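Local shape tokens

___
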Amino acid sequence: MTEKQSVVIIGGGPAGLTAAWELIKDGGAESYDVTVLEETREFGGISRTVRHNGNRMDIGGHRFFSKDERIMQWWKDTLPLQGAPSYDDRKLGREHDMEPGGPDPEVEDKVMLKRHRVSRIFWNRRFFDYPISLSANTFRAMGFKLTMQAGFSYLASMVHKLPEDNLENFYINRFGRKLYSMFFEGYTEKLWGRHPSQISADWGAQRVKGLSIMGVLKNAFAKLSPKKRDNSEVETSLIEEFWYPKYGPGQLWETVEENCAAAGVTVLTDAKVVELKQVDGAIAAVVYEDSEGNRTELAADQFISSMPVKDLVNAIAAPAANGEEHAKPAPADMVEVANGLPYRDFVTVGLLVKHLRLKNTTDTPTLGNPPIVPDCWIYVQDPGYKLGRLQIFNNWSPYLVADVDDTVWVGLEYFCEEGDSFWSMSEEDVVKFAVSELTRMRVINGPQDVLDSHRERVKKAYPAYFDTYDRMSELVEYLDGFGNLYCVGRNGQHRYNNMDHSMATAIEAVGNIKSGKTSKRNVWSVNTDKSYHEQK
């Protein structure tokens, strides 16, 4: 009988919990002794669901869609697709494909809903489709002169291509300088706190990929065809249907954690990893600290880390030299690169309001009295507002809102940096600021419409692509030198991954552990190739 391998997984977010389940499912407990260390008491990381007075907030908005069929099946196995209409489906007479034998959302909680995506851009007090579409509304909102300027600007960008050595040039090459200045320049600076010319084009290559004016045109004309297209034929940024857990993304990860624990995984919360010890060029143990400051050392054969790369490198201690009592820190040049990796944090403000001033002028019926707009989220590209995105939770799932017929539960996302003036504002002042912006935008009438509020701070939400990011390859080489250490997930790889990409890195890492594969190129290459997941 072979001896079990012990595996320590750092982090209980999508990547960490995916790794745990991949190791333990189908009788894996006979081969692996798995421990998950989660710093907080919640699961899902930034994919968690926040509960407040009977209402639920999705941190950041999470569409469950992937071009990777493994991931789609994984989600479906965890939370089966609805087999009967949801509350809003019934009230609105909405029809879509149901899963034969699937659960009824009105009766069962563990269920995945099918949702229709509507997103728009708010710019100059006008709404544009997101992504920009060939619709009468688009041309009407832009006007003849602006439309002509944008069109000729795009034609110029097709003739004269700029070197894609920064994000600004990346966008101009795909949309033309006029549309870039309208919809990308100010929003990107709002998001990252840096001008696009200072940001690596890698971010665009990962997040935008094949989206361009030509992509929008192809999608628009393809939609005119009577043939129904599979989602695999559509750019991810243009996908119009997605899945969504009844109670938000956190419900899926809470379910995965329950499944892991039932299958034999040891899950420890309030367990912050503060040190990784090494012996003979391999990681030998981690030291974690509980909420009371007590430290515990845990040895293992394999280590999977989704903790921020910056924190990981600072936690790696080199062995003490002869005659020295304490271990040394990681090499100085690696610590320098790690500490220079930037992040953007954000604050999200939940506001429960009586109604919205925005009128539903679309063909999509919605709940509410009066009916609300159908948007899942609204991108605030207008530089006159600090607000980055506005979520309308009623449209993600009616079950996120305690009184979905008579109240609207919205989430306002503000990009900032931990410790800056906005981050440090009191909750009362942040809420006042958020209400004033929504009032100026004419989304609500004023403070008198607000029934409840909640502020949530989110650290290290977005790994950023500037400062020492251009030396990231050095860190990858250093970390891969530890044969039994695998870096996975958004912060674990300092890569702005979607949730499905983070899961894929974990699946690849577990595959390497099971097969004995030594190269980790497959783990790091997820979401780097333009065609990976996004095009088939």
Notes: Residues 220-225, 231-238, 530-536 have pLDDT under 50 and may be disordered. Residues 167-192 form the longest helix (26 residues). The longest strand covers residues 450-463.
